[in-house]
Amino acid sequence: MDAQLPDVEAGKRFYGELFGWSFEDAYGSSVWARLDGRPVAALVPKTDGRMPTVWTVYFATPDADAFTRRILAAGGQVVTAPTPLDDLGTAALAADSEGAVFGLWQPGRHRGFGVRREPGSFVWAQLYTRDISAANTFYGTLFHDALFGAGAEPDFGRAEVTEVFPAEMPPHVLAHFRVTGLGDALGAVQRLGGRVQAPPFETSYGAVAVVTDNQGASFALLQR
């Protein structure tokens, strides 16, 4: 996953204090975020101010070109064609049949998460959609058992937009980070210049609050 931000240095200060991340140079002006030395995310400078300030979750694929063809066949869109990032891997951006954007990552030297589900790391991705049936068909066609079972602990869910957000909110994928104390984490977000977008609510996978960072990128905090 990565965050596309206007100011990477400000992002480092925000997330470094919130989650205890450290940072090192990645590619170009991007940085890897690490938790106890293990990769958890990247912070990427926006190259176009018209692009949203946003967190993007990437799904792994062995063949990004072939996968984008499957996305088109399933009724989705390719936002950014597969692009190699040196020997790190190949990235692409796509959108589902309702317009929710997600990433694809064909691993090279960078395999992806070094840790997840631990405090301060990725734990869940929630698709907020207006048509859960269509979402199940779209993602089920693309990912089969990888998303919906096969004995593995799931980390991707679907919900209607209006369960948390106003009806006019566009469909989107919301990244969740695990925290040990939701109240303390919300206090830190606000102290660091972020804001609470949706106050804590209960879900089948834990207590969740939706926040934005000090530059406007939305994400969720999850206390399991």
Automatic annotation (TrEMBL):
Q: Which PROSITE patterns match?
A: VOC (PS51819)
The terms under GO molecular function for this entry are: hydrolase activity
Family annotation (InterPro entries): Anthracycline_SecMetBiosynth (IPR052164), Glyas_Bleomycin-R_OHBP_Dase (IPR029068), Glyas_Fos-R_dOase_dom (IPR004360), VOC_core (IPR037523)
Per UniProt, residues of the VOC domain are: 1-107
Q: Which keywords does the record carry?
A: Hydrolase
Q: Which residues form the signal peptide?
A: none
What protein name does the entry list? Hydrolase
